[in-house]
Amino acid sequence: MKSIAIIYGSSTENTKVAAEKIAEQLADYAPTLADIYDGDEKPFLTHDVLILGVSTWGVQDLQDDWNDFYPKLEKLDLSGKTIALFGLGDASIYPSSFVDAMGILYEIVSQKGATIIGEVSPEGYDFEYSRAVVNNKFVGLPLDDDTEPELTDERIANWLETLKPYL
């Protein structure tokens, strides 16, 4: 079994709660839960599969803790790592930058040699534009706890089923 780290940054606790839900549903895999606030690179180096969670702030802005960690991320070699992304955003207030931070993380981890898994169809999401849409798919799981909190649990469960073959 591959080792899994769920690494998140959370300013309002929404991303942390989503990370905890993911960890709970993957309990059989014994994932490590890590807050990027700690600035620790170790989970990136010691785990095979990384599930990265980020929220979008304003227009195209990473959550503060991810922003602080970004220079370290730029120096990491992620070759051989499998990465899944989830992002939180608000499609009603920021329809033209919905979950952009997930797209920003996707861009850097792709450049660093990681294999990205867990793309999601944009069907069922109401937004105008997202930097996280590549080749007509979200690069990971978008969650909108502000506008559609009732869909979060089902979206996480469905997404994790698509990841299990890689875990």
What does this protein structure show overall?
The chain has one domain: Flavodoxin domain (Rossmann fold), CATH 3.40.50.360. 32% of the residues lie in helices and 22% in strands. The strands form two sheets. Strands 1, 2, 3, 4, 5, 6 and 9 form a seven-stranded mixed sheet that branches. It contains five helices and nine strands. It is α/β, with parallel strands linked by helices and 167 residues long.
Instruction: Name the helicity range.
Output: 25-40%
What is the CATH C level class, in words?
Answer: Alpha Beta
CATH architecture field: 3-Layer(aba) Sandwich
- The number of distinct β-strands equals 9
Distance between the termini: 7 Å
Relative strand content: 15-25%
Label this structure with key terms:
single chain; 167 residues; alpha/beta; Rossmann fold; 7-stranded mixed β-sheet; globular
Set out the fold topology:
Blueprint lengths: L3 E5 L5 H12 L6 E4 L6 H5 L2 E9 L3 E2 L1 H12 L6 E7 L11 H12 L3 E3 L15 E2 L2 E2 L2 E3 L8 H12 L4
Parallel strand pairs: 1-2, 1-3, 3-5, 5-6, 5-9
Antiparallel strand pairs: 3-4, 7-8
Helix pairs in contact: 1-5
In short:
The chain has 167 residues and is α/β, with parallel strands linked by helices.
